[in-house]
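User: For a benchmark we're assembling, each entry needs the component sequences followed by a predicted structure for the full assembly. Here are entry 17's components. Please fill in the structure.
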Amino acid sequence: MSIVFQRPHALIDKPLHYCPGCTHGIIHRLVAEVLDELGIEGTTVGVASVGCTYNSYEYFNCDMVQAAHGRAPAVATGIRRSLPDRTVFTYQGDGDLAAIGTAEIVHAATRGEKITTIFVNNAIYGMTSGQMAPTTLIGQVTTTTPFGRKPELHGYPVRVCEMLSTLEGAVYVERVAVNNVQNIRKAKAAIKRAFQVQQAGLGFSIVEVLSICPTNWGLSPEKALEWLGENMIEHYPLGNYKNVVLPSDKPASKE
Amino acid sequence: MAKVTFRIERCKGCRLCLTVCPKKIIAIDESTLNAKGYHPAGVTEPEKCIGCAFCATMCPDCVITVER
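Assistant: Structure for entry 17:
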């Protein structure tokens, strides 16, 4: 017998501080598996953000930097421009990327910075105990929207992938989810392609991962995954929003 | 022949592995507590395991190693 599944080398062997059932653990592992498969653990610099992922520099085996709230794309820009031979990624949540960091992500994308962003969207502020986020769904109950999010009072949820895909500098934009095994495999393929786009020097790449927050949604992890599948995907359709041809892509058949 | 190994001291008892097991052979061991105070998951009928690694793919905490 041979080992067919084990902890990737790029993920440090220590307990994660996330709540039971939090899918950040899955997404961390997917990123680490991609770093392993591409063999770039030693030449990658990750940028940790603020939110539940503030501690992600403790978990990745590559070099990591901690950015101020929302500023990870700006920090990543500096690193990538000063060290052009490195692979640079940011790992951000929706409170970090879609609220306080909206300006940074939009401008990093429109400048076509050669960085990769892993955007974890769980439709709520997790670390600060469940306030409404820009990505909170209409009608969703949070601690600051106890009667549900109302558009006339709180506005509408932000669709980051749709927004960034209109920018010329963003060349690879995809939304995935981690609510079942099939989607987890697709998520890994998307993350891998995003890193390959960066390595090919083609421009800005982002993968939005729909995630759960069982603790602040007030659901068991199992029910939270069902809620994601039934509600979030409807508002945040999965799929590729912008793609680019990689040198490694097989040419399309002429039929 | 397949074998899954659960590192129970890392398990947080979230039950996500139970939901994806096609053979439904994973269960929470209510008689055990790990150092973190969770009831860990484990395999009840190891001989039925097909080594699909669905449980390990779904596990957020890298508890499970799969051999096949």
